[in-house]
Specification:
Radius of gyration: 15 Å
Number of helices: 4
Keywords: Membrane, Transmembrane, Transmembrane helix
Helix content: over 70%
Protein name: SPW repeat protein
Largest sheet: none
Distance between the termini: 21 Å
Mean pLDDT: 84
Number of domains: 1
Strand content: under 5%
Order of helices and strands: HHHH
Organism: Modicisalibacter tunisiensis
Pfam family, one: SPW
Number of strands: 0
Structural class: mainly alpha
């Protein structure tokens, strides 16, 4: 396995941890009972991250990174769209995780483009 592939697999495992954190964070940060939209959004995105990361560890595809980027953007937008901006724990968690998830997805897409894996394994 190439060094870049090992590196991306390492980041996929980190993304798996991010998903696990998002799935449990409403309970840890105390907004599970008081903010149902914030809780459900965070939980669903966390579970989606877990699934996507597990899939990426097994076999990485460019569309997975695009979906992870969309999830990162959603995490950034959710406090505004769902109206939980006033819940500091929930909003801050969503913002920080959105930056981490989206940033990692952008990094992966840049690496894929540079290695030629962004076009079905063929050089760009």
């Amino acid at each position: 396995m190439k060094t870049a592939q090992l590196h991306s697999r390492w980041r996929d495992r980190i993304m798996l941890l991010f998903g696990a954190w998002l799935a449990v964070s409403p309970y840890v940060l105390g907004f599970a009972a008081t903010a149902s939209l914030a809780m459900w959004s965070t939980l669903v995105v966390g579970l989606a991250l877990i699934a996507m990361s597990a899939l990426a560890i097994w076999k990485q595809k460019p569309w997975e990174e695009w979906l992870l980027l969309a999830l990162g953007v959603w995490l950034l937008a959710a406090p505004f769209v769902l109206g939980f901006l006033g819940l500091t724990n929930a909003a801050l968690n969503s913002f920080v995780m959105g930056v981490l998830v989206g940033g990692d997805a952008i990094w992966s897409l840049i690496e894929m483009k540079g290695s030629g894996r962004g076009h079905g394994g063929r050089p760009a």
